[in-house]
TrEMBL record:
<protein>
    <recommendedName>
        <fullName>HTH gntR-type domain-containing protein</fullName>
    </recommendedName>
</protein>
<keyword id="KW-0238">DNA-binding</keyword>
<dbReference type="InterPro" id="IPR000524">
    <property type="entry name" value="Tscrpt_reg_HTH_GntR"/>
</dbReference>
<dbReference type="Pfam" id="PF00392">
    <property type="entry name" value="GntR"/>
</dbReference>
<dbReference type="GO" id="GO:0003700">
    <property type="term" value="F:DNA-binding transcription factor activity"/>
</dbReference>
<feature type="domain" description="HTH gntR-type">
    <location>
        <begin position="11"/>
        <end position="79"/>
    </location>
</feature>
<keyword id="KW-0805">Transcription regulation</keyword>
<dbReference type="GO" id="GO:0003677">
    <property type="term" value="F:DNA binding"/>
</dbReference>
<keyword id="KW-0804">Transcription</keyword>
<dbReference type="InterPro" id="IPR036388">
    <property type="entry name" value="WH-like_DNA-bd_sf"/>
</dbReference>
<dbReference type="InterPro" id="IPR036390">
    <property type="entry name" value="WH_DNA-bd_sf"/>
</dbReference>
Amino acid sequence: MLLQIDLQAEEPIYTQIMHQIIEGIAKKELKPGDDLPSVRSLASDIGINFHTVNKAYQLLKQEGYILIHRQKGVVIHPDGVEKATEAFYEKLRRKVRPLIAESISRSVSKTEWEAICATIYEEIEPEEEQ
C-alpha cells in the first residue's frame, strides 16, 4: 500500500497516515498480519520527522489496528480489527454530529447526506469475492 501524503493539506500528516492505513484495512488492501514499514523507514520514504509516524502508529495501536513488536516490527493486527462496540458508535456519533450540523446549516438535505455517505461507503467497501 502506497500512502499519498499531502504536506500542504490542513489535515495533520499523522492523521493522513492513520486514515490511509485504516482505509487500506477496510478495503482489504492490508490484511491481518501484513507488515508495515518501520517508523524510521516510513518517515524517510515520505520525507517527514519520525515522531510524526510514531504518533500515527501509537494511535493506530491504541485503537487496535496494529501491533508493534521490537523485533518483528509493525504489523496489521493478526486477529483483525475488533467489531464495533458501543464505545465506537459513540465516537462515531461525536465525529459525525458536527458534519451533519454543518450540512444542515448549508441546506444539505438528509437525502443528499445519505447519498454522499452511501457513495463513500461503496468506494471503500471491498468487492465481494466470487
